[in-house]
Design a protein that fits this description.
With 514 residues, this protein is an alpha+beta fold. Helix content is 20%, strand content 35%. The protein folds into two domains: 5-372, YVTN repeat-like/Quinoprotein amine dehydrogenase (Methylamine Dehydrogenase, Chain H, 7 Propeller), CATH 2.130.10; 445-513, no CATH class. It contains eight helices and 31 strands. Helix 7 (439-486) runs antiparallel to helix 8.
Length: 514
């Protein structure tokens, strides 16, 4: 089955610990480790990856936390594919969705931009006054967003940064988002091409701000009781989660139901009044329904591809999986105790994963898989700008396949429609159904039989209760009639009324026996 969701995480040693970390790929349902890529230790926001797509294998990049080195891995080998020596030690790293460009920020406020396939250093400039904490590309890769400890958020045009005619000029941001008062800790870019997308920025000033890049304006400010260190949002931008250092994870819904003037319910957006719009998200207003208490420091957040699970990485090396609808802790992945989780993401299981080659490729080893899915080219990054290298500019490209007869068998992205529909139905099935299987239907039938038995017993108990009630009523009525008849006719009839009511009492006793 191709559609199998996995969890990619990065581990790093704790401050008191030792030993290198690793890139580890886990199965989302079972939590078992599928592959491990060792000898790398990356700090938060210093890891990036690209999935296997468009006929090319995926890659993983990890900037080392103790030296100016970038480790490069691919899914077809569990060993280091390339070690790149960098001009400075990086404090953050970003890779666009097509792995065309890689950006790195430093503690001195500088940003480097390389081309991945050629290794050319296109630009290196002083972007901020203090350390660059986060770098993110927009979904279309046309803009780069940087956030720093100087509380500033800048938006840079990638086309201007790689323009040969502008190499001798100091890069200037397209615009700056300046409303935070303390260091910015995380960025989430929404869907859609630039500038028709929205951006969430988190800061130590207890706020998460929602920006509209098309108008370069602030939409809404969300104020929290604690500083925010990391955030994540679902793909449809209906809600986002914000985590604090004390282990509190707040859920913030961006839409709510409201009564319509014409009757019924309508969905309206929350906020939108600009700089004056401040929504306070405190523990009292949030309540237990929108607050998750992890109990330890949170270092990474992610949401599953089906937007049903929230993944929380902690400082102790645990990965907690929470059900978003109920906020119940479903399970925890505890294979990394003694380390710290610095990066979390969900993805489909790579068809060229080492040791797990997809059967649809019809190959028996990872070496043969390279002929079907070649490794994405990554060249050593330049440490200084070189005009001659830009003029030569030789790039290895993978041209699209025009004749499908070149392959003896279909690739992983060409498998039949019927198989795709079956895999998709299994992929979107609820978690309980995937883990239980046929036992769920047996359990349902057992519960239905139990409900029917309870209904039968309830009807019997109701019949007994009705009979008892009727007997008591009849007895009371007979006693009342007895008193009424005995008072005026006590001298003539004696106990005659008792004889008259005796058949009614006998009938009541018979009903009770039945």
């Amino acid at each position: 089955m191709v559609l199998q969701e996995t969890v990619l995480c990065t581990t790093a040693p704790q401050p008191s610990g030792s030993g290198p970390g690793a890139f580890v790929l886990h199965d989302l349902q079972m939590g078992t480790a599928l592959a491990s890529f060792r000898q790398t230790s990356s700090a938060p926001h210093c890891s990036a990856f690209v999935e296997t797509q468009n006929g090319q294998g995926g890659i993983m990049l990890g900037a080392q936390m103790d030296k100016a080195v970038l480790n490069v891995y691919n899914f077809q080998r569990d060993q280091l594919a390339l070690k790149v020596v960098l001009p400075e030690k990086l404090s953050c790293l970003a890779l666009d969705q097509n792995a065309n460009y890689c950006a790195g920020g430093t503690s001195q406020g500088r940003i480097y931009l390389w081309e991945v396939a050629s290794g050319i250093l296109y630009s290196a400039w002083d972007a901020h006054y203090r350390q660059v904490n986060v770098l993110k590309f927009t979904s279309d890769g046309t803009s780069l967003i940087s956030a720093s400890e100087d509380s500033g958020v800048c938006v840079w045009s990638v086309s201007k940064l790689v323009d040969d005619d502008l190499q001798n000029e100091l890069p200037l941001p397209q615009f700056t988002l300046s409303d935070h008062t303390l260091p910015v800790t995380d960025i989430v870019c929404g869907i859609g091409p630039f500038p028709k997308c929205r951006v969430l920025t988190a800061s130590l000033d207890h706020t998460v701000k929602l920006w509209d890049l098309s108008t370069q304006s602030l939409i809404t400010t969300f104020h929290f009781p604690k500083p925010i260190t990391c955030i994540t949002s679902d793909i449809s931008e209906r809600m986002f989660f914000a985590a604090s250092p004390d282990g509190s994870v707040h859920q913030v819904n961006l839409f709510r139901e409201r009564d319509s003037k014409h009757g019924g319910k309508i969905i309206v957006a929350i906020g939108g009044a600009g700089t004056s719009d401040i929504i306070r998200v405190d523990d009292e207003n949030v309540g237990k329904t929108r607050l998750i208490t992890v109990g330890e420091g949170v270092t990474a957040l992610s949401i599953s591809m089906t937007t049903s699970l929230l993944l929380v990485g902690t400082t102790s090396g645990l990965i907690h999986l929470y059900d978003i609808a109920s906020h119940q802790l479903l399970r925890s992945i505890s294979a990394h105790k003694g380390m710290s989780i610095t990066f979390l993401a969900t993805m489909l299981k790579p068809p060229d994963l080492v040791g797990h080659i997809s059967l649809s490729l019809n190959v028996s080893s990872s070496a043969e898989a390279k002929d079907v899915i070649p490794v994405r080219p990554v060249a050593p990054f330049q440490r200084m700008k070189d005009p001659k290298a830009r003029e030569a500019h030789e790039v290895t490209m993978m041209l699209p396949v025009q004749d499908k007869t070149l392959y003896n068998n279909a690739a992983e992205y060409d498998y039949p429609e019927s198989e795709f529909q079956n895999d998709y139905a299994f992929f979107v099935r609820p978690t309980e159904s995937q883990s239980s299987g046929p036992s769920v239907s047996a359990r349902v039938s057992e519960l239905e039989e139990e409900v029917q038995q309870l209904r039968d017993q309830l009807l019997k108990a109701k019949g007994v209760n009705d009979a008892m009630w009727e007997t008591v009523v009849q007895k009371l009525l007979s006693q009342g009639k007895q008193k009424q008849s005995s008072e005026p006719q006590s001298s003539n009839t004696g106990h005659e009324p008792l004889d008259v009511e005796q058949p009614d009492l006998e009938r009541s006793r018979k009903r009770v026996r039945k």
